Amino acid sequence: MAAMNSGTARVERQISLPFKQAFRIALRNITIRVGRAMITGAGTMLGIAFLMSVFASNLMLAAKGAEPSPAQAQKAAWLVAMSLLVSFVGITNSMLMSVTERYKEIGTFKCLGALDNFIVKMFLIESGLLGFFGSLIGSIIGLLFVIVTNLAFVGAFNWALAVLYMLACIVLGTILSVGAALPPAIRAAKMQAVDAMRTEV
Amino acid sequence: MSSIATADAQNGAAAPAVSTSDDYRASEHIVRVRGVKRVYKIGEVLVHALRGIDLDIKRGEFMAIMGPSGSGKSTLFNMVGGLDKPTDGTVFIDEVDIAQLDAGELAWLRCRKIGYIFQTFNLIPVMTALENVTLPMIFAGASVDEQMEKGKRLLETVGLGDRLYNKPGQLSGGQQQRVAIARALANDPAIILADEPTGNLDQKVGEEIIQMLKRLNKESGVTIITATHDDKMYKRADRVSIVIDGEIQAVVPPEQLGDNTVDGFLAQLKEEKDAAAIKDLETAAEVTATNAAITGEG
């Protein structure tokens, strides 16, 4: 029956799957390898937790009413820069690994008829979800850590500013995750299917 | 010896005959390969994997491609499957030159027209058998209900109706390859490309896989092209193409290989080729001897 259907010598163009489908598959990709996804997400989480704790402890210092000396302000800025660097390296590394270890799978996907932009879309959604939830949990942990260790001064704590910092952390974590996953995903999607399948990691 | 002579004669005669009667044969052949060359660059060295291949494969045919490892059969395979592009020459699938297709059309071809089976199965390890089989249907835009219904039916066809929710790691090699066959059939392709499908399986299981492919070929008329080392495999084929050093040496019905093993037949072919080259060698030897004499004097 298969051969009968294909009597016409015509080639059509592969349909581009809607965003909803890509989202469904990306979500499924995360849930079927939940352990691996947690580790990848943890990379983001730790980086952002560190960053958030630095922000929060700066706020806490202000809550204690201590006017920071120039040396202390410099130290705080240094800590923020360091934690940004830690987040960047941690997130980039875990995202890069999570894509490159799936080159073979990407090759198989392409063999089965996946379009390049679908593969990119899929990794974008996956890394976006991992980045978002990783940095959400990370920023909560970072904040909680500082709050719990300084319970006596919570009264004067600037919550509005803390929430603002949290939002910034989440946005940063998500952007870094997606940004780190994007280049290897594009590279893999553009590879010839055979080359991608032959890749050993 | 006589069989090889016939094979060579056939091969030699076929090449010009086909090119003059292309239009006449057009609809009969689902795959036509014309003058395909593939050159890889590894470091500074150019590797000629294919040196000009002409091959026609009929609709509904079971074609085995044989050759020693490194002969270029896998490269040829990837060309026919649209997985790799030739350096020179053209591959027609259903009269469409696949080098002219854009990425979207190529993806459609891979999704709908061709089913792939690999030596290493290449199933997605984290997905269940059913999810693996339905994956190509997702890309084809089938509804979830269609996917489930057809996925289950296909897995039943290959005898895995009770293993729908097992992951590849929980299945034996033969069962994994059967999942791969079901996956290859997902969108009712016209061609199934099987690259050494029995290469990683033991004899008995390999035999089952071959029988299954043969059955599919007979029942649904799907064209099967398989690269193989396996004696049992080529004996079930309609025709056997023998590839050595990036060239097709012969296209023969399997009976012509007789009881010869693949390696035996290849060795015989090579012997014949060597015999033909002996004159050149002798001339070369004379030259070398003369050169040696000169160098010795110097």
Count up the domains of chain A. 1
Query: Can you write the helix and strand succession of chain B as a string?
Result: HHEEEHEEHEHHHEHEHEEHH
Measured by DSSP, the beta-strand proportion of chain A falls in: under 5%
Class from secondary-structure proportions of chain B: alpha/beta
Per DSSP E runs of 2 or more residues, the count of β-strands of chain A stands at: 0
- Biggest beta sheet summary of chain B: 6 strands, mixed
Strand content of chain B: 15-25%
Average pLDDT confidence of chain B is: 84
Mean pLDDT of chain A: 85
- Helix/strand structural class of chain A: mainly alpha
Gap between N and C termini of chain B, in Å?
47 Å
- End-to-end CA span of chain A: 40 Å
SSE order and pairing:
The complex is a heterodimer of chains A (201) and B (298).
Chain A: H1 2-5, H2 19-32, H3 34-63, H4 70-100, H5 103-111, H6 116-149, H7 159-190, H8 193-198
Helix pairs in contact in A: 2-6, 3-4, 3-6, 3-7, 4-7, 6-7
Chain B: H1 2-20, H2 22-25, E1 29-42, E2 45-58, E3 62-66, H3 73-80, E4 88-93, E5 96-97, H4 103-113, E6 114-117, H5 129-140, H6 144-157, H7 173-184, E7 191-195, H8 203-220, E8 223-228, H9 231-236, E9 239-244, E10 247-252, H10 254-257, H11 262-297
Parallel strand pairs in B: 3-8, 3-9, 6-7, 7-8
Antiparallel strand pairs in B: 1-2, 1-4, 4-5, 9-10
Helix pairs in contact in B: 5-6, 5-7, 6-7, 7-8
